[in-house]
Amino acid sequence: MPSVATATTLTSQLTTWATLDPQGTAVSFLDYDTAANGSQLSLTWLELDRRVAAVAVSLRTQVNRGEPVAVLVDQSLDYVVAFLAVLRAGAVAVPLFAPDLPGHADRLATVLADCRPPLVLTTRAGEQAVRDFLTERGLDPTAVSTVDDVSIDLADQFEEVRLDADDLAYLQYTSGSTGSARGVMITHGNVVANARQCATAYEMLRGHAVTVGWLPLFHDLGLVLTIAVPMVAGIRSVFMRPMAFLERPVRWVRALSANPGAVTAAPNFAYAYCASKVAEADKPRLRLESVHAMVDGSEPLQLAAIARFADTFAECGLRPGAHRPSYGLAEGTVAVTTTVAGTLPLARSFDRSALATGLLAELPSGSTGTVEMVACGRPMGQSVLIVDPVTHRELPDATVGEIWVTGSNVGAGYWNRPEESTATFGAVLAGGHEDDTWLRTGDLGAFHEGDLFVTGRIKDLIIVDGRNHYPQDIEQTVERGHEAIRPRNTVAFSVPTPDGERAVVLAERARSLSAESVDLTALLASVRAAVARRHGLALHDVRLVEPDSLARTSSGKIARSTCRARYLAE
Q1: From residue 268, how far is each of 85, 207, 385 by CA, in Å?
Q2: Which residues touch 87 (CB under 8 Å, ≥6 apart)?
Q3: What is the DSSP code (8-state) at residue 226?
């Protein structure tokens, strides 16, 4: 039996815990579809291990070692079993979603066409919908298998498949636009390494921590938090469906309250959304003093959202130091940097004019002409540099450049994209050795007094008249420019014009207002004036669009590149 320290795969770790603590609870699913207050369904370490082994035996009769197997299962215990069973069978998991996920059918078809799995896993309840989808999209040669009707007795027939750290475990498809979705090749060694880095950085000790989440399991952060970290650290995992949270955010907070030592993760918007939706009447029953860590990442961080959540739940005992701003990306499995445990979220005010030239120049808080940014902490067991994206030379502190990463968590490349893989995962520093390769993240940032500040994406940077403008900074100004604009549903990008690159803004109308009730002329004038005053930027075009009309990624973020492409196609 592999030791906790040396096991190289998630499933070998699972077997370890099934042997050491067979009756201990491994994973619990809170089902709000069958019970208004949530019905908790659980598997012990031994039950999970045997279910995974049984499905793995079935899989080995259907696919070969190293072949991709797509997981098209609703968020449930069956999803956890399906994902781990593919790994144990020696195949390559492709964590995806059921075809009825609203708004994402095209992306699902694109991903399946890219990886061409010979087998798709689903459940009996979802089987017909999956078969219909595959037929409609011309993918019907793909076989379909259900995981919830595999006999548990098959576990007795399992014969271990020898897996090495360098063998592929799964393909994590990035959440970009449907035309550019790329499958990051994550090895068994990558995911175990990053899970250990997370367990160390967030101090997740067995017997003292439990992960609690609602993020989709096909998303890198949801997958690692809910499945990978618990497997490696031997801690309990509790999760629910994303819709359960969106319908009633208090369910998330109640789960945190009910599980002492909770470690959770969510994008920045979720903290503000939750704070705005939880009723005062719910607070007296919430005990949040034992919440261990609340990871905040996956999108640009806004101190206002962090502060609102902290203020809302302070009376419930929530410690401000529990909030852990972090940075990561799928190409690094998920996590790269985080703040030091026990410290408060750190915000700094930087000169906007200096930032436009690529420098972080700190000014006193409240000064005019500043941009407030939240620190994403320090590397968690990896090496992180800021590099000039053109010359490939390392840049000094407080200078904005591309974030480069190297470590055992960095993926092996993109599935079936050798040239892109070399360009992204095989970067070499100027004057460096060709074997000393780095991951080019495509993100811009700088170190300031040891902490990483992420300023934006290279491809999203708006360069007008030689000055750099960060779209999220403009979007925040636009959202504050008029009450009819829906918060966190604005997109800014640049477009080519005869006069050079110019900036465009699309903003969704607030749900509570009808189009007829909005003075569009006044709104457009207000937005243009706010952006000109704060950024010194004349907008080429401003449009107020319908609620929910902006393109989004599978993880719910605004897809800037898709919005831009649609705008240019008009």
Answers
A1: 32, 28, 24
A2: 9, 10, 11, 93, 163, 169, 170, 188
A3: I
Residues forming beta bridges with residue 445, ordered by sequence position: 401, 454
Share of the chain above pLDDT 70, in %: 97
Residue whose entry in the numeric block shows the structure tokens 């795969």? 9
CA distance 319 to 282: 18
How do residues 40-84 score in pLDDT, each as one tens digit? Answer: 999 999 999 999 999 999 999 999 999 999 999 999 999 999 999
Structure tokens at 144: 């379909």
Helices (H) and strands (E) in the chain, counts: 17, 26
Whole-number Cα distances in Å, 319 to 266, 288, 359, 524: 17, 8, 33, 41
Q: State both tokens at 434.
A: 């060709």
pTM of the predicted protein model: 0.89
Mean pLDDT, range 242-252, rounded to an integer: 94
What are 403-449's pLDDT values in tens digits? 999 999 999 999 999 999 999 999 999 998 888 999 999 999 999 99
- Write the pLDDT tens digit of every residue in 442-500: 999 999 999 999 998 888 888 887 788 888 889 989 988 899 999 889 999 988 888 77
Which residue has 């379909």 as its token pair?
144
So where are the chain's domains? 10-247, 346-457, 462-569
- Average pLDDT in the chain: 92
pLDDT in tens, 199-227: 999 999 999 999 999 999 999 999 999 99
* Tens-digit pLDDT profile for residues 72-103: 999 999 999 999 999 999 999 999 999 988 77
Q: Which helix (H) or strand (E) holds 58?
A: helix 45-60
List the beta strands (DSSP E) in 332-481: 335-338, 347-351, 370-374, 378-379, 383-387, 401-406, 439-448, 451-457, 462-464, 467-469
Determine the pLDDT at residue 102: 78
* Whole-angstrom distance, CA of residue 115 vs CA of residue 102: 22
CATH superfamily of the domain spanning 346-457 = Luciferase; Domain 3 (2.30.38.10)
43, 77 Cβ separation under 8 angstroms: yes
Superfamily of chain region 462-569 = ANL, C-terminal domain (3.30.300.30)
Q: Which long-range contacts (CB under 8 A, 24 or more apart) does 55-58 make?
A: 55/81, 55/82, 55/85, 55/89, 55/147, 55/150, 55/154, 56/85, 56/86, 56/88, 56/89, 56/158, 56/161, 57/89, 57/154, 57/155, 57/157, 57/158, 58/145, 58/150, 58/154
Superfamily of domain 10-247: ANL, N-terminal domain (3.40.50.12780)
* Cβ partners under 8 Å of residue 241, min gap 6: 32, 33, 74, 75, 76, 214
